Amino acid sequence: MEAKKPYLAVVVIQAIYAGMFLLSKAAFDGGMNNFIFVFYRQAAAAVILVPLALFLEWKTAPRLSFSTLCKIFFLSLFGITLSLDVNGIALVYTSATLAAATTNCLPVITFFLAVLLRTEVLKLRTIPGITKLIGIIICLGGAACLAFLKGPHFRVWHLQSFGHHNLHPHHVSSGKTWVKGCFLMLLSNFFWALWLVLQAQVMKSYPSKLLFTTLQCVLSSVQTFAIAIAFERRPSEWKLGWNVTLLAVAYCGIVVTGVTYYLQTWVIEKKGPVFLAMSTPLALIITIICSAFLLGEVVTLGSLVGGVLLVLGLYSVLWGKSKEQKIMNAESGLTAMPDLKENLELKDTVTNKSPV
Q: What are phi and psi of 299, to 5 degrees?
């Protein structure tokens, strides 16, 4: 049973993310302003994380310098605030299925940025390097299919009562709106990938993980509030009722930020980041099924083909990455062998010369 826990955990993680896409889309379709939604979501996460961080890590936390605080501020601005706000706009233009599909290109974008920033190396003379390049190209093809390929539409029976009372079955967005939404969704993932790459550098100067995450939540709450108040100042738009909007805010702020943070950390510790990344397509499968039945979203052939290509590209890059890691581990093991042999010979010599 113990060996099966990581597999169960990744299913729960991806199901939570699928719920995030569905509830966010339902809240926006119910009339919730996307900028206000992102602010409430981050504020809810901050309210939960601040007491935990102060109780668990405040006494052992390193000193926070002004330069590190500035780095965390800009990291929050690009990786959380802009990523979530742009994602919210894209979700209004497109669908929950597209949002889930584009997350499959996140590891690929992250790898591409890491290559540009020279924290990763792309060796084109090796099979793993070529495989990773092919994976990037396949992901680009998948993104193009999502944006430009429509094809036949598939609609299934759905629950009319789900979510807000004003919700209605979704029509297929117009061509220009859909393409704009796809571009914004990819831009959101670009900001998210940039956050993943840069936060590793920032955490070297501030290694307290929980306080680091809490600081980002607090700063992003301030940033998202400034953006939301600039775009929407009518008090009526800021009210939360007992409907899907309140559920979406509580779910995204508490469950997504709180539960998945712990589960992802635990899975990475047990099985590594590649294992977690390979479970990403589960969120797409769950979202496609649930969005069709619960939200009445129209599934197009382009969305299905694009999603499949993104998944193939993801696995191609991950396979190349895992192969390179195995080669590096084998080479480091071979390098260590002569030193080990030399130490053993030296030990034998000392033992033979011993007067005992």
A: -95, 125
How many residues are present in the chain? 356
> Using alpha carbons only, what angle is made at residue 101 by residues 120 and 222, rounded to the nearest 5 degrees?
75
- 153: β partners: 300
Which residue's structure tokens are 């990523």? Answer: 83
Rounded CA-CA distance 341/67 in Å is 47
Q: Is the pTM of this model over 0.90?
A: no
Token pair 């669908």 in the structure block, residue: 95
- Measured CA to CA, the distance from residue 81 to residue 77 in angstroms comes to 5
Contact status, residue 37 vs residue 27, Cβ threshold 8 Å? yes
Pair of tokens at residue 284 = 């797409």
**pLDDT tens for residues 47-95?**
888 898 888 888 888 888 899 899 999 989 988 899 999 988 988 888 7
The token pair that represents 285 in the structure block: 């499968």
What six digits make up the tokens of 238? 């800021």
DSSP character string of 233-251: --GGGG---TTHHHHHHHI
Task: State the angle between helix axes of 209-231 and 34-57 in degrees (0 to 180), rounded to the nearest 10.
Answer: 160
φ/ψ of residue 153, rounded to 5: -105, 140
Q: How far apart are the first and last CA of the chain?
A: 53
DSSP state of 105: G
Distance CA 34, CA 32 (A): 6
Helices (H) and strands (E) in the chain, counts: 14, 2
Distance of alpha carbon 14 from alpha carbon 279, whole angstroms: 7
